Amino acid sequence: MKNYISHDPWKIVEHGFHKEHNQITESLCSIGNARFGQRANFEEHFSGPSLQGNYVAGVYYPDKTKVGWWKNGYPEYFAKVLNNCNWILLDLRFNGERLDLSETEVKEFYRELDMQKGVLMRTCTVALKNGVVIEIESRRICSFANKDLGALSYQIRILEGSATIECDSLLDFDIRNQDSNYQENFWTNYSAHLNKETAYVQAETKKTGFHVGVAAQTTLRLNEEVQAAMPNQVSEAKLGHRYELSARAGDTIQIEKYAGIVSSMYYELAEFKQKTERIIAEAAQKGYAALEMEHSQAWARKWELSDIVIAGDVAAQQGIRFNIFHLNQTYDGSDDRLNIGPKGFTGEKYGGSTYWDTEAYCLPFYLFTAEEEVARNLLVYRYKHLNKAIENAEKLGFKDGAALYPMVTMNGEECHNEWEITFEEIHRNGAIAYAIYDYIRFTGDAAYLAEYGLEVLIGISRFWAQRVNFSKDKNQYVILGVTGPNEYENNVNNNWYTNYIAKWCLNYTGAQIEAVRQKEAAAWDRIQEKTRFKEDELSDWKEISAQMYLPEDKENNIFLQQDGFYDKEIIPVKELSAEDQPLNQKWSWDRILRSCFIKQADVLQGLYFFEEQFESNVIASNFDFYEPLTVHESSLSPCVHAILAANLGKHAKAYEMYLRTSRLDIDDYNNDSEDGLHITSMAGTYISVVKGFAGIKVANDALHINPALPKEWDSIAFSILFRGQRIRLQIEREQTIIENLSEKDISLLFNGKETRIASNKNSILQQTL
Ligand code: BGC
To answer: Residue 88: which of 136, 123, 54, 137 has the closest Cα?
Structure first.
């Protein structure tokens, strides 16, 4: 655990230069605008620990799989989000000595990510070896107001000495992914243009044929006076402008750099150059300060909808805002071809691809904080991949329109390379069906079913119906050879979570078919024809759902994670020695598989999803059994435990679990923040507060609020959007104030009691009813 980031409600602050943690800070202070993003690299050359990272949404490369022994059905490739053109580069030399914070004496240093305004800034004082002392002040944005624009302002003051200065303001597209399987360059077909004022470079991805084009314009002033630029082509893919000037103590050099960044996701290649040049010309005209202002105003609108105010605990406040900030930077719901990579724009790990994380963890964040369309687009993304999911299932021997969604994907094709996950974690299909249910119950947008959702549900249900087999021994349907959410068990039979979600899904699909058939006959005819749905499928599904085997210990009210779970030696995690943890780094895989230790919520994941279907004593007995066995070695785990614990009244446990999620990256809990941030687990933090401590859920078609404020906090305040109505909650120790910000009255259940709040009115509700 690291503790070098100062506690602040709105900022991530590094006081003093922590060079050894530089790669962590680069991740933490990443900035992005859901269209492109970057790590918080320095503008100038830096030879210390660093991962240079610039990423453009939706632009990926299918990197050929690397496995020991090829088996039929293996995915051909692992899709990777591509490290892109570095547009921030300002290579500086003072009397010939290169500015490099790794090699020079850094006298003062302050780096700040202002999450409220979305601005990354840094000030530092540096003593060069040649005696020149300078002060740098830089600010940078990935504009929220113009999603194709990046801008920076970089000021140098000469404090001591005098120098001839060379400044190369460059675009560098000679970039490789650090995680390339075969160390190849994924980019090709470079072309570049340079004129007196602007630099432009474009490249194409190998195989996938995406294009990205970047133009930059720099203005450099010495004491307010604009300096002449000299075009400078360093190599085929690295070019820009050189400035040469002399300055002495007291002089100020002010650099402003604008970059227009476009991709073939949004523009025709033929218009790239003109488009990017227009973007930078307009930006230069407005100037950095005005651009930053527009950008911060756009952020203010985001915060108005998604902020959570925690009073009485600065560390918790910083933690939650950090998570909300990065979620908003990663996905804005404006494009149904995009999704949420586990690292967003902050690193390369996990390839930037889509996992079940989106449906299981991220969806509620966007449901609560954004217009309906944002969450809807996450669902439509999967609808558009339905044919690929059917092909994916066919490759594995399924037929007749059965759909198996990929565990990891960019374009709908499976691209995960571990067979235990690729083939066996079929539960991801369940989360995709669950998301449709969750979306509809939350937004009330039942029209989604006939338009898109039902086809997906039918494909998924067909998969379950073919994946089960009837056990004569048990006289029930079983699902063999799976991996559940707990990846520390592979190839198990009858994972309770998987069987339960399959059972639920078959049942839910049947009910939705009936509903659409009755209410929208024409739509049903279209769907029936398109999916070639046969009536007897419905009766098969009913039968399988009714007869699904669910391993359980009835006497103790415990659902068994899988067949034979009780054969394991049951030892609580607290009896493990610290040297043994994390297990995934300390133990052999074989030992992990034989043990009872659980990587992440598994049975408990099911109880979280389907809470209203179980008595609270049943949830409690399962929680009490599984929680002590869980090592939480996935960042997705503690949030589910936090929510269940809060809802069960286990306040201390809920708070302990919450702390593990909310500051996971800031405090570098898992020693891996340097690779990038855990974006999908950030959504888990958000739901821990909203579904856990505020106790918000939709059950039996009604909104419920059951607050359980942690004793460490004075209050929590936030707003949510429910079925088009926005309400604001202020949860205090003794009372909750609910404000209805919409034009219609709203009915809800507060601690189980029906409450009606008139439009644009407040209601003050006592906590203990
Ligand atoms: C978790 C998976 C998750 C993946 C990406 C893994 O460690 O076990 O459930 O989908 O990370 O976040």
So the answer is: 54
